[in-house]
Amino acid sequence: MYSKNLLQTWRWFGPSDPVSLQDIKQVGAQSIVTALHHIPHGELWTKEEINKRIDELKSGGFEWSVAESLTIHEDIKQRSGNYNQYIEKYKQSMVNLAACGVNIITYNFMPVNDWTRTNINYTMPDGSQALYFNWSDLALFDIYLLGRKDAEKDYSEPLLKKAAEKNKSFTTAQKIALTNTILFGIPGEEKRTPTWMKKELEKYRHIDKAALKSNLACFLQEIAPVAADLGLKLAIHPDDPPFDILGLPRIVCNREDLMDIISYSNAPSNGICFCTGSLGANPDNDLPEMINEVNTRIHFAHLRNTKRDTDGNFYEADHLDGDTDMYAVMKSLLNVQQLSTLHIPFRPDHGHQMLDDIGKMNNPGYSAIGRLRGLAELRGLEMGILKGLGY
Ligand code: DNO
């Protein structure tokens, strides 16, 4: 194996993941990305719970390379309520992870919802199924199904028209499916309801981008030096999709945002999870250029592709297809890897539901075969580039 390759990892949601560790062995992944999803957001990850997961991974022959995600409590994002207490708990969870040998921590600063899609079974011409994001479906949910106050002000006339039409033509079952998809959240975590979401969104009515950025800066100034002392690498995940949605401010969407985040703390622990699927949904983002700029502050990478239409809707394409030039991305990442002392892990992010996985119970985006295709293609691309560079 090359000494300067990226580390090939695989996300596992824990013992209830339909993809077993034994399956993952056959995929050829080198290590595992996972989280303690059963612990509520903001609560302490004890050494006991961390070690339990490490033992589970060991029994399948794996190491835990990245904690994804050590989630941030909403009080920290809002800088209100018990935020100081939650920051202290976050620090203690970092101490515990470091003591157990888990050295990379991914988190995000997306208010209320993690990643958002409007369809998890978008049928591709080849019969496989992809995750999909459609603006008028989001508007339908936001205005008619959720009923967020003043929601219609956030959409253009054409979108408002489409949403109104869909509100008339969609069946009740379609509306329920749309609601459940948007509220899906993260596998294994507490399920959300529209009432809950409406209440949470309301809390951000007076928090704009500048305020949220300042809350992130304060958080990072607290935790990044502690992480650095512990030898940990932090990796903030971009907003997915990288646009303001549901009236929420979004602050991890483009080059400027990433550079701002890096500037919030000089501690070497303060870094980025470079998710090409999230950032690639914005046509203004030049990903290879951004990789060169963020450089060794890239502590983790998610490799995925998206295909946009002219209205900005997008589906998740095959890993080497879509709008992102994965060859250029991989080349830039490998260049960074040659400079980095850290072994930068990457994982094939999402994959199509395909072949025998169609119809099986799977975590959306995380079925085995589609991701295996992604990992195999990316691994081949990586090897080809490294050989070409003479490694
Ligand atoms: C979606 C994932 C995200 C990611 C978190 C990181 O599939 O990439 O849920 O894990 O945003 O904090």
Architecture overview:
- The protein has 391 residues and is α/β, with parallel strands linked by helices.
- It has 14 helices and twelve strands.
- The chain has two domains: 7-115 and 205-311 and 318-388, Divalent-metal-dependent TIM barrel enzymes (TIM Barrel); 119-197, no CATH class.
- It has helices at residues 21-27, 47-59, 74-78, 83-99, 135-146, 157-169, 172-182, 194-202, 209-230, 255-264, 276-280, 287-294, 326-339, 368-389; strands at residues 7-11, 31-34, 64-68, 104-108, 119-123, 129-133, 233-237, 272-275, 298-303, 305-308, 314-317, 345-348.
- The chain is globular.
- The model has no long low-confidence stretch (mean pLDDT 96).
- D-mannose (DNO) is lined by residues 68-69, 106-108, 114-115, 186, 237, 302, 349, 365.
- D-mannose (DNO) binds next to strand 4.
Please state the average pLDDT score. 96
SSE sequence, one letter per element: EHEHEHHEEEHHHHHEHEHHEEEHEH
Subunit organisation of the chains: single chain
The biggest sheet amounts to:
8 strands, parallel
Distance between the termini: 10 Å
Q: How many separate domains make up the residues?
A: 2
Question: What keyword list fits this structure?
Answer:
alpha/beta, 14 helices, single chain, binds D-mannose, 2 domains, TIM Barrel, globular, 391 residues, 14% strand, 43% helix
